[in-house]
Design goal:
By secondary structure, this protein is an alpha+beta fold. It is built from nine helices and 21 strands. The protein is about 25% helix and about 25% strand. Strand 1 and strand 2 form a beta hairpin.
Length: about 450
């Protein structure tokens, strides 16, 4: 019999400073239990297996922590739902792009029992974790001299040096991940007095220039700057994929408006002095955006399969920058909350976003997104729509503006990016004008 694949959450446990949920990932086939890569969100297609907490031969009890994974949103701890012995690890520590439901390990009932390897044979093969050298463009097939005795593939930079000096790469002490030879290893092996340059015995590849075989400086140093390749995290890779999808499949339309925030800034200062409760201009922007969406409900919609899907609630997503990447926690029913409640909600969500402790329902969905770079001095910019939402508002910095009567007002530029399939120009203009009305008449919302 085969038991169902469980994904129910249990107690939380931090993983590398981030929130982790324990997840059921074991199922049984006869006397072998399979351990799989779980799917934790609708957007997750792959994950990175960060570290196993059990070794082959270890006893595993139900509830024991098996391994940590990095998803497109956070790091999670994965637990077993079965008792047994870890008989086989199929996916090593640090392996990235492991497809969901891939079999990553096998459990058996008794020590010494052989697992059913046919369960692993049908699993999709995961892609190995990228190393600094592996992130470089694929190297051309090395010549026998360059690859003699080498058990690891060489990056283009390393291969060029090995070929240039006629070295045996297997003789070079490797310090890279998983025994890879790095460029620094070759330079250290050469030392201060490198051997003579070996002349190429074959013509240069098409497009190569004569400078490729030029002699090194007299000092023996290779005139090439040092650098370090940094692997892309799963979250940043997913962000890049979604931005590319958005820009290439959604017809973006852009509309800008300048809003006079002089009275808003003065009233905010007065209320903070009177109540002692602090709130930001961004909190007011959240409230004004929500009310404008209620006033112009056409903009409060998702685009699904090219069709507009009106939403019944106004949930505002706030773009928050974290060390791992950008995430958008959601203020639910923002049109019905006071600015003070919105302020406390945003602070709490932003803090948990930066610590990686948001739950999936707190960052998935939403009616509308706000991205504020004005607090960082950016005067104006255009944001990329976060599908399936139809709009995103980009907030610029305050700037003084001198009017004809010589008075000085504080003005902020707002740029609305909208999905033309859902919001035509008329809808975008109506929404911006409604938003401007609320912002320039702050007593209506404060």
């Amino acid at each position: 019999c085969v038991r169902g694949w469980g994904t129910a959450a249990r107690a939380a446990r931090p993983v590398a400073g981030a929130h982790a949920r324990r997840l059921h990932v074991t199922a049984r086939s006869q006397d072998t239990y399979v351990v799989s890569m779980p799917a934790l969100s609708p957007t997750m297609t792959t994950g990175t297996l960060i570290q196993w907490h059990k070794a082959v031969g270890d006893t595993v009890s139900s509830g024991d922590l098996l391994f940590d994974i990095e998803t497109d949103k956070a790091n999670m701890a994965v637990e077993s739902t079965e008792d047994g012995i870890l008989a086989k690890i199929l996916v090593d520590d640090g392996t990235s792009d492991v497809p969901i439901m891939t079999v990553v390990g096998l459990l058996v009932d008794d020590e010494g029992e052989e697992p059913d390897m046919s369960l692993a044979a049908s699993a999709p093969a995961p892609e190995a974790a990228p190393t600094p050298d592996a992130l470089m463009p694929a190297a051309p097939t090395p010549s026998p001299t360059a690859s003699a005795g080498s058990a690891k593939p060489l990056s283009p930079a390393v291969l060029a040096l090995v070929n240039l000096y006629g070295l045996d790469s297997s003789a070079i002490p490797a310090t890279g991940p998983k025994g890879h030879v790095l460029k620094g290893d070759v330079l250290a092996f050469l030392g201060d007095t490198p051997p003579p340059v070996v002349k190429a015995s074959s013509p240069l590849p098409t497009g190569a220039t004569a400078t490729a075989a030029a002699p090194t400086p007299a000092s023996g140093e290779v005139a090439e700057p040092e650098y370090v390749d940094i692997p892309v995290t799963t979250m940043r890779r997913v962000i890049a994929d979604r931005l590319t999808e958005s820009k290439t499949t959604i017809p973006h339309a852009y509309t800008q408006i300048d809003v006079d925030v002089t009275e808003l800034l003065a009233l905010r200062k007065q209320l903070i002095e009177e109540t002692g409760v602090k709130f930001s201009v961004n909190d007011v922007i959240v409230k004004a955006s929500a009310l404008a969406l209620r006033t112009v409900p056409t903009a409060n919609a998702h685009c699904v399969d090219g069709e507009a899907v009106p939403l019944t609630t106004v949930d505002i997503a706030i773009a928050v920058a974290t060390d791992a990447g950008l995430i958008t926690p959601i203020v639910p029913a923002a049109d019905g909350q006071s600015v003070f409640n919105i302020s406390s909600t945003v602070k709490e969500l932003a803090g948990r976003a930066r610590s990686g402790t948001l739950m999936p329902h707190e960052y998935q969905g939403g009616s509308f997104t706000i991205s504020n770079l004005g607090m960082m001095g950016i005067s104006s910019f255009s944001a990329v729509i976060n599908p399936p939402q139809a709009c995103i508002l980009a907030v610029g910095a305050n700037r003084p503006k001198v009017l004809p009567d010589h008075s000085i007002r504080q003005v902020t530029r707002f740029t609305l990016s909208s999905d033309a399939r859902v919001c035509d120009d008329e809808t975008s203009i109506k929404w911006l004008n409604s938003f401007k009305m609320f912002m320039e008449n702050p007593r209506t919302i404060l």
